[in-house]
Amino acid sequence: MSNRTFTIVKPDSVANGNAGKIIARIEAEGFRILAGRMTRLSQAQARGFYAVHAERPFYNDLVAYMTSGPVWVMALERDNAVPHLRAVMGATNPAQAEPGTIRALYGESIERNAIHGSDSNENATIEIAFFFSSGELV
Ligand code: CMP
Q1: CA-only gyration radius of the chain, Å
Q2: How remote is the CA of residue 60 from the centroid of ligand 1, in Å?
Q3: For residues 67 and 47, what is the distance between their CA atoms, to the nearest angstrom?
Q4: Ligand 1 pocket: which of 62, 88, 101 to mutate (most atoms within 8 A of CB)
Q5: Domain boundaries, position 30
Q6: Of 75, 116, 118, 124, which one is the catalytic site residue?
Q7: What does the CA dihedral 38, 42, 45, 50 come to, rounded to 10 degrees?
Q8: Can you spell out the DSSP letters for 22-75?
Q9: Nearest Cα to Cα of residue 22 among 132, 96, 137, 113
């Protein structure tokens, strides 16, 4: 069944000139981009988006990093969207990511790990709605 996920091409990827390669890989994996834009997250957006991690020791650093420069936010569609994107991204820590995955290729550290992808269909719905109205999904 075709379904949706949400991704952020993170500040390290944009700053290092890897955003285009990552978006090309996403397309090559059969995802349709339903909506996308480049933006710079505000403090409030980053804190809200990662609210689930608010009690983690890395939360403040994560918010500082995610607001440090522009990102691409995108809503994506394909069959098995959530697990497929997570497989293509690789493990959270690039040092443990499978060779050839986006994080293995472009991630710098467990924090500066190139890309975010939703971890469930429920969170994909929430995360897409965080950035896009339904009319923007084309
Ligand atoms: P992401 O998939 O966007 O979800 C939460 C983010 O927090 C994660 O990618 C990393 O960027 C960051 N993160 C997760 N675990 C750690 C950690 N142990 N130390 C620092 N940052 C982390």
Answers
A1: 14
A2: 11
A3: 10
A4: 62
A5: 2-136
A6: 116
A7: 90
A8: HHHHHHHTT-EEEEEEEE---HHHHHHHTGGGTTSTTHHHHHHHHTSS-EEEEE
A9: 113
Q: What is the pLDDT of residues 65-105, one digit of tens each?
A: 999 999 999 999 999 999 999 999 999 999 999 999 999 99
Question: 49: which strand partners?
Answer: none
3-state secondary structure of 15: helix
CATH code for position 132:
3.30.70.141
Q: Which residues contact 91 (CB under 8 A, 6 or more apart)?
A: 97, 98, 101, 103
110 within 8 A of 121, measured Cβ to Cβ: no
- pTM confidence score: 0.97
Say yes or no: CB of residue 62 within 6 Å of ligand 1: yes
User: Cβ distance 38 to 72 under 8 Å?
Assistant: yes
The total domain count for the chain is 1
Element housing 6 (H / E): strand 2-9
